Amino acid sequence: MSTKNVDIYTDGACRGNPGPGGWGASLRYNGQQKDLFGSEVESTNNRMELMAVIQALESLTRPCTVKIFTDSKYVLDGMTKWLPNWKKKGWKTAAKKPVKNVELWQRLDAAVQVNEVSWQWVKGHAGDEGNECADALANRGIDEMLR
Asked: pLDDT per position in the chain (147 positions), as tens?
């Protein structure tokens, strides 16, 4: 049984931080593209970056091999560096403070467990087609909410 290879481009946006927020994700599989977006009335950029990845992973209907492209060092470092220690320390940071956005990190951690996920940082607003698409989707989320 082969698993699906899916590329996912994600981005979050906020107008004010905090302020109206949007998230966008563009999933690419076998020449197909599925775009997702959403919004929150009051959010932060970091929360929207997390929501983009969570929503994309939760939209998958079966386990996949996933490569996530993000311009968020917060999401990338959280998943590749900080998460194991947060979990060991009962969701506390190295400074013994509660992890911010803990419910989203826990939801993302659960979504990652179902799939084989690798992470790739991309420079934002630098012409990467997938990243530009995710950015446009995140802003569309805000625009449609504010209509």
From this structure: 457 999 999 999 999 999 999 999 999 999 999 999 999 999 999 999 999 999 999 999 999 999 999 999 999 999 999 999 999 999 999 999 999 999 999 999 999 999 999 999 999 999 999 999 999 999 999 999 999
Q: Identify whether 12 is a catalytic site residue.
A: yes
Catalytic residue among 11, 24, 78, 130: 11
C-alpha pair distances (Å), 131 with each of 8, 10, 25, 125: 9, 7, 9, 7
φ, ψ at 60 (rounded to 5°): -70, 135
The pTM of the full predicted model, rounded to 2 decimals, is 0.96
Provide the token pair at 17: 């931080």
Q: Which stretches does DSSP call E strand in 30-127?
A: 32-43, 64-70, 116-121
Residues 21, 40, 135, 141: which is the catalytic one?
A: 135
- DSSP letters, 7-54, are EEEEEEEESSSSEEEEEEEEEEETTEEEEEEEEEEEE-HHHHHHHHHH
